[in-house]
Write a structure and sequence with these properties.
Layout (H helix, E strand, L loop, with lengths): L2 E6 L4 H12 L3 E7 L3 H9 L3 E3 L2 H5 L6 E4 L6 H10 L3 E5 L6 H14 L3 E4 L6 H12 L5 E10 L17 H16 L4 E9 L9 E8 L3 E9 L8 E5 L2 E5 L8 E6 L5 E10 L2 E10 L3 E3 L10 H11 L9 H19 L10
Parallel strand pairs: 1-2, 1-4, 2-3, 4-5, 5-6, 7-10
Antiparallel strand pairs: 7-11, 8-9, 9-10, 11-12, 12-13, 13-16, 14-15
The protein binds nicotinamide-adenine-dinucleotide (NAD).
Length: 354
């Protein structure tokens, strides 16, 4: 069966959905576009797409069974509810909503209508993220202790609607939502506390530099850093495991990706050292485990953002569970709300279970 899809919002991201689907997912045909700007509808028409002048016309098109929302963040809640109520399956751009309250409203309607509601967390199919996930799954570096995920830019601040709180602007809901979604997908253990420092360095009405530190069950920590206005790039990923280290410098260039495994030989090193006891200094023999290590090749991954839509097709047809669910997006929004609480309380962290 071929599904017919319409895109609402055809600015920057809308055309990317069209491109990805039309080149890679034959089970979906992008039929048309709705946007509130005529200039954008003209662009869509020039690309050969049907243009819906208003939302009512789109919702009453019985051929359309999937709607993708690629509009600014403050519109997602209302548009998702309207489309679900019209009997459409909905793919919503990230951030799913601006708050957990908004998302609860959408989840109730999705449950009531029985329609699919999923979030376009395409970065779960990024090669760098999938490499980190595979290394952890293969156990090469053992249990992770610290996982650090960073994204940086030299840009000063957030531009356009991304600079305004009323539109759901700010780097936390923009890039932070991707990085947190990846971390929560990677580490299954629940988050037990969130500490954060959030700056509005160059964007008066929205955040543009953020650091979030999460403690998870099972003694694992994760860090998410969004460093705008930074002029020396930190590594995109760094994982310290019980038996090794993984570091991916660039998100896209694998030439600087390194995987080092500790060498498990029984070899030990003995060193004479002074220890200050109650009786005074004593010379003792300290035994250190081997510090040898070996670089390993990184596992190969073959992923594409189109895999997201392939899963959407299978989920609608009941062949597979949806990979990105509203419940997962709710966890991410709960972390963001804990981070905001922490920032307002001087970086304090309160107990939670997310
Ligand atoms: N997943 C990703 O990798 C990724 C990347 C970029 C943007 N996004 C997300 O995509 C969404 C859109 O971002 P963008 O950069 O394309 O923004 P944009 O401003 O370039 O485009 C948004 C479009 O939506 C239209 N629009 C606004 N309100 C509307 C409404 N009520 N009904 C119909 N059309 C409306 C605008 O006219 C505009 O053409 C955001 O939620 C953003 O976070 C996701």
């Amino acid at each position: 069966m071929q599904h017919k899809l319409a895109i609402i919002g055809f600015g920057y991201m809308g055309p990317m959905h069209y491109d990805i689907i039309s080149k890679n997912v034959p089970d979906i045909q992008v039929k048309g576009v709705h946007d509130i700007r005529q200039v954008i509808l003209d662009k869509a028409a020039a690309a050969g797409l049907y243009t819906y002048q208003d939302l009512t016309e789109l919702l009453s098109d019985d051929e359309i069974d999937i709607i993708t929302l690629a509009t600014p963040n403050d519109t997602h809640r209302d548009l998702a509810i309207t489309c679900l109520r019209a009997g459409k399956n909905v793919v919503c751009e990230k951030p799913v909503c601006m708050s957990t309250t908004e998302l609860s409203d959408v989840m109730s309607v999705a449950e009531e209508t029985g329609k699919l509601f999923s979030i376009h967390h395409n970065r779960r199919w990024d090669p760098d993220y999938c490499t980190v996930k595979k290394v952890l799954q293969e156990g090469t570096i053992g249990r992770p202790l610290f996982v650090e995920s960073r994204i940086s830019a030299e840009t000063r601040g957030q531009y356009g609607w991304r600079g305004y709180a009323i539109n759901g602007g700010g780097v936390l809901l923009d890039w932070g939502i991707h990085l947190l979604d990846q971390l929560l997908d990677l580490i299954e253990e629940p988050v037990l506390s969130v500490a954060a420092h959030i700056f509005s360095q160059h964007t008066p009405d929205a955040d543009d530099t953020v650091k979030i530190f999460m403690r998870h069950e099972n003694n694992i920590s994760t860090l998410c850093e969004l460093a705008w206005s930074t002029f020396i790039k930190p590594p995109r990923w760094r994982v310290n495991g019980e038996h090794g280290t993984l570091q991916l410098d660039s998100p896209v260039d694998p030439s600087g990706w390194q995987l080092i495994q500790a060498d498990f030989s029984d070899e030990t090193k003995q060193v004479e050292s002074i220890v200050y006891t109650k009786r005074g200094p004593e010379t003792r023999t300290c035994v250190f485990p081997s510090t040898a290590s070996r670089p390993l090749p990184l596992p190969q991954v073959s992923v594409s953002w189109a895999d997201y839509y392939r899963n959407i097709v299978d989920a609608i047809e009941g062949k597979e569970a949806p990979r990105v669910t509203a419940a997962q997006a709710m966890r991410v929004l709960r972390v963001i709300e804990e981070a905001r609480w922490s920032n307002e309380h001087g970086g304090a962290a309160r107990a939670c279970h997310i």
